[in-house]
Structures are given as C-alpha cells and as structure tokens.
Write a structure and sequence with these properties.
Blueprint: H1 6-10, H2 27-34, E1 38-40, H3 44-47, H4 59-73, H5 78-85, H6 88-95, H7 101-122, H8 133-151, H9 155-161, H10 165-168, H11 171-180, H12 183-208, H13 215-225, H14 228-232, H15 235-239, H16 245-248, H17 251-271, H18 273-278, H19 285-293, H20 296-324, H21 329-355, E2 371-373
Helix pairs in contact: 6-7, 6-21, 8-9, 8-12, 12-13, 17-20, 17-21, 19-20
Length: about 375
C-alpha cells in the first residue's frame, strides 16, 4: 500500500461501527438489491461554487481540431463514435481554461489517451482483453515500456515496442513533455502514469474475484486507477512554471493532489452510479457504502461528507502553503497557479459530468434536489 493513502482511507471510516447489512454480499445480489431504488443527488456544485470555473475561449476550434485528430488516430467504428460524443474538448477546455492553445491541445490529447486506454482495460464493448487478465497484463507491460521510451526521447525504441494506436496515441503528449519539462517533472509524470497503469491491473484482479472489495480496498486502487494524479502532474508544463522539487515534496502539496483526486473520484462515483448499475457494475463506492450503511441515500450522504472533508482539507493546505512560502513572491505566484489549476480540475470534472450525457442524469445542474432511480 502507498503510505500517503492512509489519511485518505480514514475519510471513509465511520465514526461508530455501522450496522452490517446481511446478504447480499455477491455482486449479483447487491445489484438486485439496489436496482429500482431511488436516491437524491447532493448539491456538489454548491460545495465548490467558489472555486474557479470557466471554459477556454477557443473551445470551438478545439472541437474541430480534435475531430480531425480522432479520425486520423483511430479507425472508424463504435469506439471512434463514442470518443467524438464524449465531449472531451469541453473537459479539456474547462480543466485548462487559460493556457496557450497548443498546451490545451496537448492536455486534451492526454485526456483522450486516458479515456481510450482505460476503455481497453475495462470495456467489454470495445476490448477483447478486458476479460483476459493474461493479455491485459501484456498490454500494460507494453504500455509502460512505450511510455518510458517516449519520455526518454527514444523514438526508435518506442516504435519497436508497439504500433497499437491505443498505446501510441500517447506520443504527442510525451514529445511535448520531453521538449518542455525538467528531468524532475518528467520523472514525476512517469511515476504517476506507472501508478495509473499498475492500479488498473489491481482493479482487474479484484473484479475477477467472487468476493467484493471493502471500501478501503476499493479506494486504494481508485486513487491510482482514476488517472487524476497523472493528469495533475502536467500542471507545471501547462502553466510554464517550475516549482522546486523540495516544495513539490511538501506534505501539503501532496495533500492538494490527494484531495483533488478524492474530490474528482468520489464525484464521479456519485454521478456515474445510474450508468454503472444499468451496466451491471457494482464495484464502486456507492454500492460498497450501501453495504456498510444499509441505505442507498445514507451511502450517498456518506460520500458527500467525504467531499466536504476533502474540500476543507484542500483549502487548509492552501492556506498553510501560502503562509509557509510567503517570503518568496515568485514561488507563491507559481503555487497559486498550481492550486488554481488543481481546483479547476475539480470544477471541470463536475461540470463536464453534468453536460456530457455520459451518466444518464437528465440534468445540467444539481441545485434542485435531483432524484434518480437506478
């Protein structure tokens, strides 16, 4: 287990021992138990309404350019149609609303790579390896080898490792990072990508087992398989800043990233529950919290409590960092850009989730006590 995850797991531990729910304990029984139940979605928008949120002024241009990119990178078919329909440029433009256009494009390429690669790991609709752990392991190994070669600037070696566009669509991102980032920044990016790939393997192993994971087990792998850490690790590239390594290793900087990861992941787990139950999936936070609390609404309320704690923790870490480095004006300015981008990642994920249609919510806002039936 990664040591920095301990404080994160504690957010999900109840203050008093919960009343255990009798069976269902199998996936099939859990799915049957929650299907047809209704729940009211919490107003996550209000929780982070004070955080920055805007859209890049060149969103329309990005949509047009990304359509061309997708058509050149991936063969025609359902996967390509799904990528075009996912409104990934909206997510990219909300995450990086004030960067140069070329940087916005690279950030959106990274989002696309994460979407496509993750689908290859877990989507039975598109992938032949999602249900084949042996082939999936080989695919993950090739992915890591390819990423390492790209980030080492070894283009010839990278080309020998794979020609699969699901893997090789990483290359423009790798090229941009190598040409613009320091060795320390590249190493941090690689470390987060390796964690992402590794944790998708852990996730697949859990899903092959008959026993459901505990909340803590689920969250351990979710912190890596969410890809949030990898996405946030290009923040310095995106804003052309170079925060000293010792500052990036500051515990409060790690708290910023971990809490943003929590906020994005838990928000996604809440908003995606209807889609996942419709697809027969229960290996996610809300169903597992339902087993703990015995009530679907109590599970959602518990997840919302975690979001409140994470927002407060992120704000506290921000204030401590501002005070600690206030003597260095340039560093403080860079940290404020870094923190603003982290907050944008949270608001971007929420706003995109409400507008992309992916989660079948039928609403663009959570302000009016939205109730959904699973």
């Amino acid at each position: 287990m990664f040591p920095w995850l301990f404080s994160y797991f504690s957010l999900f531990k109840p203050a008093v021992a919960p009343k255990p729910v009798a069976p269902p304990v199998s996936r099939e029984k859990l799915l049957s138990s929650i299907r047809g139940q209704s729940m009211t979605l919490p107003d996550i928008e209000d929780l982070i309404h004070h955080w920055p949120q805007s859209v890049h002024p060149e969103l329309d241009r990005l949509y047009a350019d990304i359509d061309i990119y997708l058509e050149g990178a991936f063969p025609a078919g359902k996967r390509l149609q799904k990528l075009k329909a996912a409104k990934i440029p909206l997510l990219g433009s909300s995450w990086l609303p004030d960067v140069p256009y070329q940087v916005l494009t690279i950030g959106t390429y990274l989002l696309i790579w994460v979407f496509v690669w993750d689908d290859e790991m877990d989507s039975l609709e598109f992938s032949s390896i999602a249900a084949d752990p042996t082939q999936a392991k080989l695919f993950r190994t090739a992915t890591i080898e390819y990423i390492r070669a790209c980030l080492d600037g070894e283009d010839i070696q990278a080309a020998k490792i794979s020609s699969d566009p699901i893997i090789t669509s990483f290359k423009p991102v790798g090229d941009a990072v190598v040409s613009s980032c320091t060795n320390d920044q590249i190493a941090a990016f690689l470390s987060e990508l390796e964690l992402f790939v590794y944790m998708t393997g852990v996730e697949q192993l859990f899903q092959q087992e008959k026993k459901l994971p505990t909340v803590d087990e689920y969250q351990e792998r979710r912190m890596g398989s969410s890809s949030v850490g990898a996405l946030l690790s290009i923040t310095e590239y995106a804003y052309d800043i170079d925060i000293p390594v010792n500052v990036m290793k500051d515990l409060d900087v790690r708290i910023l990233v971990d809490e943003a990861n929590t906020i994005v992941s838990v928000t996604n787990d809440i908003l995606s529950i209807k889609k996942e139950v419709a697809q027969g999936q229960v290996d996610s936070l809300i169903p597992l919290l339902y087993l703990r609390h015995g009530s679907l609404q109590a599970a959602v309320d518990s997840a919302m409590s975690t979001l409140r704690s994470s927002v407060a923790s992120l704000e506290s870490a921000t204030e401590r960092l501002k005070a600690r480095y206030s003597h260095d004006e340039r560093l403080t300015n860079d940290l404020m850009k870094y923190i603003k981008s982290i907050k944008c990642s949270c608001t971007a994920s929420l706003n995109w989730s409400l507008n992309c249609g992916r989660y079948r919510l039928g609403c663009a806002s959570l302000h009016d006590k939205v109730t959904i039936t699973l």
